[in-house]
Amino acid sequence: MSPISFDKHMDLCLYHPDLGYYAQVPTQVGKDGDFFTSVSCGPLFGQIIADVIARWWKNAQIAGPWRIIEIGPNNASLAIDVLDSLALDHPDAWHELEFCCIDPLPLPRAFQAKMLASYGPKVRCLENVDSLAELPTFVYANEVLDAFPCHLIEKTAEGWKEVTIHSIAQDTPLEERLTTSIASIPSLLQNCEYPLGYRTEIRDCSLSFWQKLRSCISFGELLWFDYGFAEPEYYAVERSRGTLRVYQQHQASDNPLENLGQCDITAHVNFTAVAREAIAAGCTLKGFEPQEFFLTKNAADRLTRRDLDAKTLRNFQTLTHPAHLGGKFHALHFSIGDSAEHNSTAMRRLVLES
User: Measured on CA atoms in the order 198, 203, 205, 211, is the torsion positive or negative?
Assistant: First the structure.
């Protein structure tokens, strides 16, 4: 096998159409899978997202067809929680809704279609957004950005070099080497002093991803939940081995060259880089904050209801407590097609202001 860059190795391990980790029937999430997400602990996460969407729909005074897009719906649990909440709590918004799940892989997409069949033609499971006409649209995604393939780079005496993956012979272990061929380096890494052996990740510009998504939205909002850092913290000198991790059966390791296609490979999100690309595609930065803050302020109506039960309260505490999911995850929020300016607090947090 010819040497390949680490991002191509990661892409094959996760998204190979037959052998990739995410190409299989989606059983990766939950107690019997490899990792937990905010969806794993109950329906409240989806219900709060549904409330946020319905509030946007009402404030935008949408009359006529509109759309929700979920990117990377996995086992469709979050889609079900959002759809059920909209149908029950927001029937006016439900009436002319079109719901689209986007997953590029056929086996999980067929699984999602089966799980969502009871909603009839209101729900479509698609490979991409290419066939979608322009509509008012709310996009959301949970733990998708961290699964975008990344390059691995390391500081050497000759400068930054890229990790490539090699196979000496068939049935022999894969090996990594450093090569002079390297992707574009963020200016922060170029301009700061890092110790020899410092290793980190960079992701290629995904401007085309944002532009395609933007093309089917007349106006709307985009909401992303994931774990990561603003760029200065992401590339902190003390983070000397980066953020790349491998997960299998809730056990973490740092070896992405074993059990190929059987484990999740992930790296934290550089939220500054993501926001920079989204803004370049025409999005307005609406917010960037820890998940605990976003969910708390948007759950007020639900948490003051008289029928609030202990299970829902525990669900909320798991989602928002700083020691649990609340401090680990962030919400990154954009708008499209309105006259709003970038949120100044979010711009400062992401170090995007001069």
Answer: negative
What local confidence, expressed as pLDDT, does residue 168 receive?
67
Q: Catalogue the long-range contacts made by 248-255 (C-beta closer than 8 Å, 24 or more residues apart).
A: 248/34, 249/33, 249/34, 250/34, 250/35, 250/36
Pick the closest to residue 335 from 299, 287, 296 (CA basis).
Answer: 287
Alpha helices per DSSP H over the chain: 6-15, 44-59, 77-89, 91-94, 106-115, 187-191, 207-215, 231-234, 271-280, 291-298, 300-303, 310-320, 325-328, 344-349
Q: Kind of pairing, strands 217-229 and 135-142?
A: parallel
For residues 311 and 277, give the distance between their C-alpha atoms in angstroms, rounded to a whole number.
Answer: 39
Paired strand residues for 98: 67
CB under 8 Å to 264, separation ≥6 — which residues?
A: 14, 21, 28, 34, 35, 147, 246, 247, 248
Domains of the chain: residue spans and CATH: 34-146+205-235+267-349 (3.40.50.12710)
0.90 surpassed by pTM: yes
Q: What is the pLDDT of residues 307-350, one digit of tens each?
A: 677 788 888 888 887 766 657 899 999 999 988 899 999 999 99
Per residue in 20-65, pLDDT tens?
A: 999 988 776 656 665 667 787 889 999 999 999 999 999 999 999 9
